Amino acid sequence: MSSTVASSALVQKLTAILLDPNNATLLSLVKGVRNGIVYGSKIRFPHALVMVMLFRSGTFREKLKSVFQATRTHGQNLASFVLVFKVLHMIFSSQKGGDPARFSEKPTRKTPDAFLAGAMAGYLVFGRDGDNPINQQIVLYIFGRTMMALLKLAGAKTGLAQALDGPGDKSGKGRGNWWGLFSAASWGGVMWLFRYYPEFLQGSLRSSMVYLYQDSERWTGWRNFLLYNV
After folding, report:
1. Residue 181, Cβ neighbours under 10 Å: how many?
2. What is the pTM of this model?
3. Rounded to an integer, what is the distance from CA 151 to the centroid of its chain?
4. What is the pLDDT of residues 141-184, one digit of tens each?
5. Are 229 and 218 in contact (CB under 8 A)?
6. How far is residue 208's CA from residue 154's CA, in Å, rounded to a whole number?
């Protein structure tokens, strides 16, 4: 009975600490790290499991080790970015007076704080190991999504979205031609590079394009035409 009472008192004390507004800033960093680890692991584990088991050579134990290493790297890097970014953003925003800005609250004015903190954190966490394929995938994903959002923003601010694709709204609907332009530029660029400078393309991308465009031009009979490549 006494142990139950002690446990209940401990839970109440912990809850009081978590709900104390004076601890909110520090605890948001702790939970940001926690969420980074969980989200990065959930994203990377199934992807790494499929890719490693299907395409990586080695024993089952070696493959399993690679899966967990990739999962750990993704979760660790994402958690590190969240921590560094939030700390820097808090420092930049607090220097202007008042409490550190919280992302759960709508900003009242636009400042360069988020860009500066993001750029610095991006360099410190992802920018110093450009040969790491996981870092490359994360940064390239962010780059692609950022470019798409900027195209939509440019269309909304300049009115070109309506001129190209008819009326649009702030939700991003009615701007399909921006996606068309982005797709055209991306595919035109990669095909030009593959045609004339394939050595500069990332290895797995180059291999997939060799399979699609070069291997499809070579065969000596029906077997290596339908069943396998030469």
Report:
1. 13
2. 0.78
3. 19
4. 999 999 888 888 887 777 665 555 554 455 545 445 677 778 88
5. yes
6. 33
